[in-house]
Amino acid sequence: MRWQYGLMLELDPQSVSEVRFFCAPIPGSTFTAKGDELEPRSDGALFVEGPVLLVSAETTARLCKKLAPPCNAKPLFQGWDILMW
Q1: Which of 18, 48, 54, 84 is deepest in the core (most CB within 10 A)?
Q2: Which residues have C-beta within 8 Å of that of residue 72, sequence separation ≥ 6?
Q3: Domain count for the chain
């Protein structure tokens, strides 16, 4: 399974140089995207492909449960001086 993230920004997506992501309940979902990994879209979104994660009842139990609560994935911006060109 591959995680895909899309961000709608209130700023120019071309000015973002790095974004860090995490989805705390899912091991292996923390990653940093930068450079060519950040793909600006014509609609103003910034697209990022996440890491490939193995899916099983053990490693991603929440995805295998019928009534699993939603994952609260969110971008983590550590500082505009690092993220902006």
Answers
A1: 48
A2: 23, 24, 25
A3: 1
